[in-house]
Amino acid sequence: MATASAAATRNAKEVIFEWEGKDKNGKAVRGEIRAGGEAVVSASLRRQGILVNKIKKRRTSGGKAIKQRDIAIFTRQLATMMKAGVPLLQAFDIVARGSTNPRLTRLLTEIRSDVETGTSLSSAFRKHPMHFDALYCNLVEAGEAGGILEALLDRLAIYQEKTMAIKAKIKSALMYPVAVVVVAFVVLTVIMIFVIPSFKTVFSSFGAELPAPTLFVIALSEFFTGWWYIIFPALFGGLYFFFESWKRSEKMQGVMDRILLRLPVFGDLINKSVIARWTRTLSTMFAAGVPLVEALDSVGGASGNAVYADATEQIQRDVSTGSALTTSMTATGVFPSMVLQMAAIGEESGSLDHMLAKAAEFYEEEVDEMVKGLSSLMEPFIIVILGVLIGGIVVAMYLPIFKLGAVV
Description:
Layout: H1 2-11, E1 15-22, E2 28-35, H2 38-47, E3 51-57, H3 68-83, H4 88-98, H5 102-116, H6 121-126, H7 134-146, H8 149-203, H9 212-248, H10 250-262, H11 266-287, H12 292-303, H13 306-320, H14 325-332, H15 337-349, H16 352-407
Antiparallel strand pairs: 1-2, 1-3
């Protein structure tokens, strides 16, 4: 019977309890603890010499999804407090209480509870791979092993901030043309379904043969009007299936990543952003004291492109058999000469992390300049395309009216 009771206690779902009380000196204290029930919390606190006044279960409802930005801000705050000499557990408490997202608060509380029970920080992070990737955990582990956790967290925060900045610039470059295309599609749909049929009714009373452009636009409008309930589900379903396949299929990712790198204008932008992330990641890992072969494990995935991930695997195999990093990078044929030269200088001078960081800074600035240039270039280009599409429809619908005026 006692055995069954103990098993039930162990299998009970643990939740977070907030408690208030007084310590052995009569000082008011408060905190949080993960346990299977209030009785477990009370017993645990009594063993610590705490007189409990209040215990309540923390509400766990609500909260937004945890994003990369939330993790980056947490890393920066944790690094800052540890550099200031704040103990690790206390730093977790401060960050968790200062968070406005209940999900993030719960995540940090779970990690803190694991660390408090003797688990290493890197192992606690590894329990949450959705939020802390292998690169993050490896750097934290290297910091714990070398006794330089606060310095590694600072490097990690810088790395995340730089990576997010590049992604934000790429999104800003793509957002404008995508938004304009969506608006243009909506406008053209309204014209085809509601406007063109009105013209068709007017033209039917002319009794004359309509011009070819007008007939084409009317036929297109009839197609849209007659089959819209199939066209739109097929279109949106096809786009959803395409993006899901892109996200889930490694083969599809490889094909699309190769296509993206060959796109005019945008391909160069994507290529430079990938190189910036690749060099920044390897620089951060190498500076943390992670061996080169192990560092390359995380670099390929962090680049965000299948072409560079495959190249990184090849580099890792070559380096593990004794080849120099620069020689292995050259053999892949995907890195520009500037990166290769800076890597070669870094290997010769023993400052590989510094030279790769310089290369990352250069390509981050290149991405920034390209985004600014694209923003000014895309506006007239998109205006011309929309003018041709909508202007062509307008001209096609007014051609019969012009001909009728000429006859009169």
